[in-house]
Amino acid sequence: MLGAHAAAGLGLVLLGPPKTAIARRALARRPLRRARTAGLALAALLLVALLSGFAHSSGLLRQLGPVSAMQLHVGAALAAVPLALWHLLARPQRPHRTDASRRMLLRAGALAGAAGFAWAATEGLERLARLPGRGRRFTGSFAAGSGDPAAMPVTQWLDDPVPEVDPTGWRLRVSAGGRVREWSYAELAAFADRLRATIDCTGGWYAEQEWEGAWLDRLLPEEAASGRGSLVVGSATGYTRRFPLGERRRLLLATRAGGRPLASGHGFPARIVAPGRRGFWWVKWVDRIELRDTPPWWQPPFPLT
Q1: Topology annotation, domain 143-292
Q2: Fewer beta carbons within 10 angstroms: which end of the chain, N or C?
Q3: CA torsion angle for 99, 77, 11, 15 (degrees, to 10)?
Q4: Going by DSSP bridges, is the β-strand pair 205-215/142-143 parallel, antiparallel, or unpaired?
Q5: Cα–Cα separations (whole angstroms), residue 31 to 34, 36, 91, 225
Q6: With 0-12 CB in 10 A as exposed, 13-18 as middle and 19+ as buried, what is 124?
Q7: Which residues make Cβ contacts (< 8 Å) with residue 295, sequence separation at least 6?
Q8: Region for 130 from its dihedrals, namely left if φ exceeds 0, alpha if ψ lies in -120 to 50, beta otherwise
Q9: Which tens digit of pLDDT belongs to each residue from 3-26?
Q10: Pairwise CA distance, residues 202 & 188, whole Å
Q11: Tell me, what's the pLDDT at 18?
């Protein structure tokens, strides 16, 4: 998947020269100022997305002041989407018979092959030049704080703040099968279930830690095991994610990492550890877990806030 993404980006680079020629002819026709500005903005955003993506993948420039190269890459790509849609709608193209001709298919195949070769070549060059990017994970993320929770970056999804939770008054509310149970921090901290798992953040970093806490299955009533639906895990910030009920035995509600209580930035007093899922599934500052009849797919693939 990462290779296909990188090859697609390099494919855009290969399309640059012919597209530039088309753009020059269009600008020569003196288009409306608004259309010209939108087109130039789209080109600029695509250039920023490509350059920041290369900066991150190679490891040559991973941080630009308060933002990372990955954040700039994703932000520029998302900002380009509405401009690209406007570009397509403003200049509609009718399909032609030649679009599906043998020549066009061969050109598309040649472009795909060249993009794939370019990706393989850049990967090889990174290793030969011993660039930092050669050590990134298969997801494209770089190691940051493995075995040392204090060295892990403090990140959260979009506008989530980092709350300061008082453990003496904090309660975890578990609702399942018509029953409600509240757990105190001291009760949860008494569990010692352990799991070594890797959190892989969409911000471009990963860390492997020894997590300790309680399996989610321990916190649910027995009748919940035979039910259907999903588990909604909510944060003190209002952030939520919905998990399949069948994953309850491999989800850990962690209260410690590396043998120490979680730091505030890493989810104190409790956070979800979801092996195999990206970082935005690892809900922090958990204060409620609810069993619902709604299927687990009834949510956006990525949180909206």
Answers
A1: Sulfite Oxidase; Chain A, domain 2 (3.90.420)
A2: N
A3: 60
A4: parallel
A5: 8, 6, 12, 64
A6: exposed
A7: 229, 230
A8: left
A9: 788 778 777 778 777 777 766 766
A10: 29
A11: 74
